Amino acid sequence: MADRPEGRRSSRPRIALLTHTFPEQIGEFAFLAPEISRLANDFDVVLIPSQVARANLWPLPPGVWLQSGFSEYRPRWSVMLASLFRAVAFPSTYREMLAFGWRGLSPRVAATVVARASRIMSARQWFRRYLSRSDVDAVYSWWADGFGYGMAWAASDLGIPSVARAHGYEVFDERDRLGRIPFQRETIAIFDLIFPVSQAGAAFLSHKFPAAAERIRVRYLGVEPSPGDGLRSTDGVFRILSCSSCIEVKRVELLASGILELAREHPQFKFQWTHIGDGPTLQFARDLIRSAPDMHERCYFPGVLPPSTVRKWMAERPYDVFVNVSSSEGLPVTLMEAASSGIPLVATDVGGNSEIVQDQVGYLLPRDPTPRQLADVLYELSSLHPEDVQAMSLSAKQVWAQRFSADSNYARFVQDFWSVSDKVSNPPR
Q1: How many structural domains does the chain have?
Q2: What is the residue-wise DSSP string for 203-238?
Q3: Residues 384 and 307 both lie in one domain
């Protein structure tokens, strides 16, 4: 799909929204599509992906445009060298290296810090050129990361307000491969408002950067109502569902180990495990399962599925528990999706998981559970009386309706944009 040319200026405020790959229907799509649909009711929205988004694109609703210039930005060598020199001369670059202590002297850390500074500088340069030619009232980065910093910096140069969401990898230091997020202080400082997607993320950032606490406000993501009532198994088979990318932080291999432990401890117990998703650690999880006799017949790996299919499976197929064992999280939308279908939840106590996985909704595991602990919780859940399971299912739906409904959460978020738009005096009622 080619860029949709930005429409003529309407009477509505215009937002430039920086994403990773959206509107491509992968990654952010499940989270951003319902949000954009609602923003577009009140604002003109220009989508600016940082990665080339060309295949399987979401049909853009009226009032939404695609600007792919940033993802295709390939500066000349002279410009790249100038950006690199600016990064090296950037005072914050040296402060970041010093913050790592003696590790800041290592070539790996120094090169990573300089590379990220160069990325910030390049983003600032592109966005200064773009924003100076565009009639944009506010900029919005869906991630509080380096590209977002560069965009917000350019916006600040031009007097344009900026906001960002903050999720997990750009909030919690343990998610960064350096063990600390370079330029996070400057990133949080540059935005007019920061919207963490969890209370845990807001508390972490407010404690780490107290001067920014008044500009940090929790805004949960939200999901649509389930397309069905959700089903529980009635044939004596306990069905376990998980859905995530198969990368190190998601610990799919830990989940596989817990499934194996469940089979070893309770050899007569009938269960099935389905994991939706793909990635570099999936093969290791598959190999673990294949190491035990007959386990491959009880485990199903369908790969990556469209978000609409995942929602349909949750709503129309009998699943008895949804499991998340990540080592770090923001607040997973998959937990919200499962709750909207009334599926009991089991998750590790990381990030914002405890804000949705409460006693009446499921079980919260320790941050680093053993396979045995996971197996024990799954077996305990399978042993509950049907009336207790039904109560848990109803509670899950209530938590979704009260805290994670797309309608209510994004309506509130739209109001936040009216508050930062200098060109709007009276928000809609």
Answers
A1: 2
A2: HHHHHH-GGGGGGB------BPPPSS--B---SS-E
A3: yes
